[in-house]
Design a protein that fits this description.
Layout (H helix, E strand, L loop, with lengths): L2 H5 L7 H46 L28 E7 L3 E2 L6 E8 L5 E4 L5 E7 L2 E5 L11 E4 L4 E7 L19 E9 L2 E2 L3 E5 L1
């Protein structure tokens, strides 16, 4: 007979050996389940800790504040308004008659109008404001030639506002510096031109008899 055959037990195992095997198998199963649960709880706890830490860090950083832009608009007034550009000024003329009989002196009115969008200042004194009478393209009379004052007269003009000044012409010619005799001009066709600094009017035609 084979010795290995003699050492191998035959028949059913004893009851105590059977239960020991079952207890060991159950213990092993419990250990495995416990290990899986421990690993899962450790990973979840770490995630939760990281989430809490992130929230704490975010809570510790102040939220960016919106940027506020302030726009200041200055409306010009009497003291802030600058001087009118020539392009923002219109010079207009008016004669009280178109034809003047002999012995009648013409009366002219010059207008300075602010055609810009904002108030501005303009010198309308004798130094800046002037009239000329021309005949055949030649200057016959200039209000500056014999002006008794060169003072400035700065006025503030609102948009659309006008300054006006009236001048009577005695029908005599003039020379620069009011030199020479002032002789009366003869009948004919004449042109009137006005100026306010660098702004010049259109010609206005009138007649002397």
């Amino acid at each position: 007979m084979d010795p290995e055959t003699e050492r191998r037990p035959r028949g059913r195992l004893p009851a105590d050996a059977y239960w020991r095997r079952r207890v060991l198998a159950l213990v092993g199963l419990l250990v495995a389940v416990g290990g899986v649960a421990w690993v899962a709880s450790g990973f979840g706890g770490e995630q939760q800790a990281n989430s809490v830490g992130s929230r704490s860090t975010a809570a510790g950083v102040p939220a960016p504040q919106p940027t506020v832009t302030v726009t200041v608009t200055v409306t010009p007034n009497g003291s802030l308004a600058g001087f009118c550009a020539d392009d923002d000024i219109e010079v207009k003329l008016l004669a009280d008659q178109e034809t003047y009989q002999a012995g009648t002196d013409p009366a002219f009115t010059i207008f300075v109008v602010n055609t810009g969008d904002a108030p501005c200042k303009r010198d309308v004194g004798p130094k800046a404001l002037g009239l000329q009478v021309l005949s055949g393209g030649q200057v016959v009379w200039d209000s500056d030639h014999c002006a008794d004052s060169n003072r400035a007269d700065v006025r503030r003009l609102r948009p659309g506002e006008e300054y006006r000044n009236s001048v009577n012409w005695d029908r005599t010619g003039s020379q620069p510096g009011c030199a020479g005799e002032r002789a009366e001009v003869g009948p004919g066709t004449y042109q009137l031109v006005g100026r306010a600094g660098g702004a010049v009017s259109k010609e206005l035609t009138f007649y002397l008899e």
